[in-house]
Amino acid sequence: MRSLTIPFVLCTFLVAPALAVDATKTGKEAFGSWKDDAPGTIRKIMPSDLPAAQEQEDQTNPAAVVARPDHVQPKLPPGFQAELIARDIESPRAMRIAPNGDLFVADSMANQIRIYRFDDNGRVADSGIFIEGLNQPYGIAFYPPNDKPTYVYIANTDSVVRVPYKEGELKTTAKPEVIVDKIPSTHHWTRDIVFAPDGKRFYLSVGSGSNIALDMSPQPMGGKDAASWDKENGLGATWDTEEGRADVLTYDPDGKNRKIYATGLRNCAGLTLNPDTEKPWCVVNERDGLGPNTPFEYATEVKDGAFYGWPWFYIGQHEDTRTTSKRPDLADKVTVPDVVMQAHSAPLGIAFYEGSMFPAEMKGSAFVTMHGSWNRGGRTGYKVVRLPFENGKPTGAYIDFMTGFVLGEEEVWGRPVGVAVAKDGSLLVSEDGNGTIWRVTYKAP
Question: Which residue in 149, 225, 300, 309 has the fewest CB atoms around it within 10 Å?
Fold first, then answer.
């Protein structure tokens, strides 16, 4: 167990001199590795750039996570600085900002939710363990989704629970109320949660239980065919060992009236709302074993009733021939995601920027954390990127924003996970390699 002690301010680092910004990398040039990363580097990968599948065993290439050397700091664009505001956290994962500005952090492997309160300078003034005794908590949401929430909802790996909430409390004494139970919890264990703006429904992401559903029966149980199953459960809904998985689900606030909102999302690890459209967005970890650059990871608006391919297809009509079951009837019904990203980079968190601290062109962008590859020869991920939007729509590109977590071919010091926008407009980033939280601020150079 890591120490629970959180000093007020641990250290502050100014960003190194501005790094050269590459022209937009496209096609194969955009695949690359960590060696190509630098703040300002732009990649624009198109679905049509997808290489042919190379069915193979993944190249096992896990990073050795080491302590951050004293001379090493996150790298950011000119004018930005990173400040270490919390450390010694066992497993800081998803983060959410309460309406009063408190930061709630899922300390997933410690089975608890932490809370941090900031002073006028944005530094930690107080902290505590808001609730303990959970089961791999991840997603956190406030209800009603307004300035005066009365509940905190927490997505455990196998359930959704809620506890009464009073503004300003650092610890709850309430016993969690289970409102959704029996969520399947093997393999992909993260569950994210977000309320619709009107508070009438919440969205819940549930990742797949396998890589390509090889243990799922060829047809639904009970003599039903796949088409009949779709009519009852939704286009492309999986069954048997994968029933209710690789989906975004919706429920009433009391956990009733479950609906499959979208299917075929292998692991929607990060779920949020686009504040402009009020529609849900996911960042998705795709499958393994098809090569170092196939298939792409992605970020996308999640459309009601849409099917995104898993396990039978990926990035459109590209068929995964390894599956036990076959659904050729779905080939022309796959929704292509909005922004595709380097394969195996493991995007985990997403937050739209609505603050006023950063440059104006960043408002409306989405920041995405990449946990990093473990099965790719050229290591990729291990950074925070920005997805620019124009006229409310993603451009399809993504821009390196926060890099410097990789020390070399064998070692990294940080694995970004959670991302949240603080009330003062700063960006908060968690990483679970060394168990730290960073605050990113901007001052015009």
Answer: 225
For 11-442, CATH gives 2.120.10.30
Tokens standing for residue 405: 């977590």
Kindly give the residue spans of alpha helices, DSSP state H, lying in 98-143: none
pLDDT in the model for residue 10: 41
Closest by alpha carbon to 95, among 439, 445, 391, 442? 439
Answer yes or no: is pLDDT of 389 > 50.
yes
How far CA 256 is from CA of 202, 303, 306, in Å, comes to: 11, 21, 22
Taking the C-alpha atoms of residue 6 and residue 9, their distance in angstroms, rounded to an integer, is: 8
Residues contacting 104, CB < 8 A, separation 6+: 95, 96, 97, 98, 113, 114, 115, 130, 140, 152
Per-residue pLDDT of 291-347, as tens digits, reads: 999 999 999 999 999 999 999 999 999 999 999 999 999 999 999 999 999 999 999
Q: Which two tokens stand for residue 183?
A: 């969520």
Tens of pLDDT, residue by residue over 64-85, are 999 999 999 999 999 999 999 9
Vertex 126 angle, CA 195 and 119, to 5°: 85
Which residue is listed with tokens 């996970």?
417
List CB contacts of 288: < 8 A, sequence separation 6 or more: 58, 211, 344, 375
Residue 418 host element (H or E): strand 416-421
User: How far apart, in Å, are the Cα atoms of 123 and each of 8, 86, 189, 268?
Assistant: 7, 9, 31, 31
User: How crowded is residue 257: how many other Cβ atoms within 10 Å of its Cβ?
Assistant: 9
> β-pairing, 42-44 with 25-26?
parallel
Sequence letter at residue 8: F
Q: pLDDT grade, residue 112 (50/70/90)?
A: very high
Q: Round to whole Å and give the CA distance between 381 and 6.
A: 28
